[in-house]
Amino acid sequence: xxxxxxxxxxxxxxxxxxxxxxxxxxxxxxxxxxxxxxxxxxxxxxxxxxxxxxxxxxxxxxxxxxxxxxxxxxxxxxxxxxxxxxxxxxxxxxxxxxxxxxxxxxxxxxxxxxxxxxxxxxxxxxxxxxxxxxxxxxxxxxxxxxxxxxxxxxxxxxxxxxxxxxxxxxxxxxxxxxxxxxxxxxxxxxxxxxxxxxxxxxxxxxxxxxxxxxxxxxxxxxxxxxxxxxxxxxxxxxxxxxxxxxxxxxxxxxxxxxxxxxxxxxxxxxxxxxxxxxxxxxxxxxxxxxxxxxxxxxxxxxxxxxxxxxxxxxxxxxxxxxxxxxxxxxxxxxxxxxxxxxxxxxxxxxxxxxxxxxxxxxxxxxxxxxxxxxxxxxxxxxxxxxxxxxxxxxxxxxxxxxxxxxxxxxxxxxxxxxxxxx
Length: 422
Fold this sequence. Notes:
InterPro entries: DctM, TRAP_DctM. This protein is an all-alpha fold.
């Protein structure tokens, strides 16, 4: 029966049913067909979301939304442009740098794509860049948000796989920096080939002026990440501190408007409600999968076919990549992690190494059609078809896949920092 349940989930996803329906309807059908009391469903769903660490998710989402509202993104962009905008293809570099800084505050690829994208795409178009290139750089840079801490999907993965959130965050630091450097290298190569121009001449006065304007904003990741890494704050506490600090910035910048703040609360609450519904329903799916002993059977079957932990590692990431074409990162994590945990244990795979790469590959799904939420966001702000944006972003996408292969081969890129400071 479980094969029919999984097939039903896949078909519902393909026909674009709401994710909570695609995950929940087959599970409810399973309960009915097996004669299991329906009352079990709300118990499992409530138990899944009854995790204190998940409180960090709405806080980081709200902090990112308020950052955009209070003009923090514009200050970051101006500073990045003053630092590196003078080189050939400078606005491409600025996009990556601005996304990297904003990533350390929002933890959301969608927030990064929309917040940074509103300025970068318009600025690059104004300077004569190809609109498709502008949108592609913005989209590719959005992949940094869920990798550079704090990361919302790392919180969800850690809570699901019982992996330390703090170590997940530490494990994402070097990969995030490596991804940013690689994106900049690709920007430089494409800009040189296409003959894109340079920005305004470099001036220390402009760097100092823009840094002064953006200094308080860039203190946000210092408070959040520093608090978590030092052990002073848990991720949940750090997320609440981030919201309080961003509200303080709104007061300092005289942008705090209670009407707009209320609307941001409603929008964030709506987004979190939808997200938590998916998380809750996935708990019921996980129970069905465990009851049917799918993880045990999967571990046994894989053990009969392959004996190499590396091959199992790669196979899991390939499944994540394929599922990411059709599903958001959260349901991929919530569906796949419980099923693959026995494999991870049986083959002695480092759960931290796999966890960070699992999240990075999930991120790649956010920039691919047909269900890439970051792709939708960039298409919205750039007013370009999704297909054209994705085709233009293929060089960046392929490069990121190569980086994933490098990090599979060299685990220390991910594990060294958590081992040193975790």
